[in-house]
Amino acid sequence: MIKTSKSLGINNIVILIGALFTTVILMGISYYKTDKSREELLVSNQLSNKVLEIQYIISRAESSQRGYLLTNNKIYLQPYTTARKDYLKLLRELTLYNKNDYDVRIPISKIDKLDSIISLKFKELDKTIRLTKSGNEATSLLIVESDLGLYYMKDIKSLTNDIRRNLEINLLDKKTNYHVWNYISITLIILAFLIILISLINLITKIRPVLNDLVSTKRSLEESNNQLNNYVEHLRVANKEKDRAMLKNKLLIDSLKVKNEQLDHFAYVASHDLQEPLRTVSNYVEIFEEDYEDKLDDDARMYFGFIDGALDRMRKLISGLLNFSRLGTSGEKEKVDLNLCLNEIKANFQATIEEENITINADSLPVVEAYKVEITQLFQNIISNAIKFRKPDIAPIINISFEEESTHYKFKITDNGIGIKEEHLYKIFDMFSRLHSAKDYEGQGIGLAFCKKIVEMHHGEIWVESTHGESTTFNFTLQK
Amino acid sequence: MKLKRKLKTVLLIDDSESDNFYHKRKITKLGISDNIKVTYSGEEALEYLITELNGEYPQPTLIFLDINMPGMNGWEFLEHYEKLDIAHKGEIVLTMLSNSQDPRDINKTSQYKSLKGYYSKPLQDDYLEAIILKHFPDYVED
């Protein structure tokens, strides 16, 4: 938007405003001038009328004098007296009007001249009236007939006409002046309007693309807004579904947790309580063998041997089950250096490692957040399996490596042992699952079940890859 | 292992008749004591400890205590036992655990001052010999 207003041009707007301003001023001046001109006309007319009136008054005074002279009746002198008074009044008024605010004046010299001629005229009239009053009518008639009064009258008429003509000419001048000015101002106003028009057109042509731009922007905004709304709606629905799924998952996980806890508790109670009768059986088999040793034949001894073996195996199974149910209850997670764990395991297997010429290659392992006892057991069980299921004629080699991933560490423990048949791979992590008879390989089938549970406790996964007769690789992940 | 002299009295506290019989037989066979008193509950054992017999309290030399008993269990017995008059107490008290690997039980054994150790059931020959060597070295013949 800032860019747009710049492209519209500040000059344009300045011109526009300037032109408008000029127009307003010109119109104001024009109005003032017209008004002044009207006033001037008025004043000029008034002056002209006054002058004309003076002329009439003098005529009236003269005719009144003639009337008196002819009739000698004093009644005819009444208008004369009034005319004299009126003249003085008019003269006063004329002088007053002459001092107007406008440049409309009768030159003082002309007024003075008029006044002096009129004074002479009145003097002449007065004289004739005075002579007539005193009965000297002949002298009076002489004066009348001398044509002096006629000359005065002519002078007065020509002077008043001259004054009035001058006023008219003056007015005409002013009018012309006013008209010239008027033309100029009208031209200027038209010019200003043209400028306004041009800059408006200019503005419009400049605004139009911006406007079009704005309209298309608005349209595209609306469109994207719609899309956004759709997307939000879509998200909302998806979210709802996700929430529902999550709730379902949470319920499932909760119920699974409860079931797991119940299972652990069951395993604990079962194994704990199974131990007692087992111990009793074991104790009394022992007493029986002691007390009746002399009376037992070889068959009986063999039977007792089987019973002892079964009891021993059962004791181990139960204790394995008990320990399985207790995994993760021994302590809290802590920082565990797996290199130290591996050293501990190597120390535990020291004798076997030397005896069987076992090689254990390991990367520099990470420090992980884990249950220390359990994580050591995990590595130990897998290594122990690799040692246990070695090929009789080949020195065991165990390779331990790891990769760091974004959320997990991925470990790989590979041996060169007897391997696992593909059809058995799926069940090796099951509890009490054994692939070999006790005659060939000792064991309760709980080691890998432990491993699975330990890995799951660390939010990881465990899986196995194997080529039968060649090697086995245990893979597992641990959450960081 | 031969003993110069036998322990005066051994007290067994266990609700299991078969275990009591087995332990009594083991202790007798190893020649640890001829005077083995068997009680079947904590209450019975307390009663026995505070009852005079021939003008004196039994004060057993060694007490084996089972934890897992109906009614008053081993821990509850110890609560009462620790409040007893010194004249009523025995010499060495040991507990027998059904499973010596249970960390909860093992933690609890350290809470009782009168408890000198814990062993796993059943008390076999090697356990008993170890107990004598540890707690009664004076009784052992060189």
From TrEMBL, chain A:
Reaction it catalyzes: ATP + protein L-histidine = ADP + protein N-phospho-L-histidine
GO MF assignments: phosphorelay sensor kinase activity
Organism domain of life: Bacteria
Name of one Pfam family that matches: HisKA
Segments forming domain Histidine kinase: 269-480
Record's keyword annotation contains Transmembrane helix: yes
The name this protein goes by in its record: histidine kinase
Organism of derivation: Aurantibacter aestuarii
Automatic annotation (TrEMBL), chain B:
GO annotation, biological process: phosphorelay signal transduction system
InterPro entries membership: CheY-like_superfamily, Sig_transdc_resp-reg_receiver, TCS_response_regulator
Domain Response regulatory, residue spans: 9-136
Membrane-spanning segments: none
Modified residues (4-aspartylphosphate): D66
Superkingdom of the organism of origin: Bacteria
Coiled coil: none
Alphabetical UniProt keywords: Phosphoprotein
Designated name of the protein: Response regulator
Natural source organism: Aurantibacter aestuarii
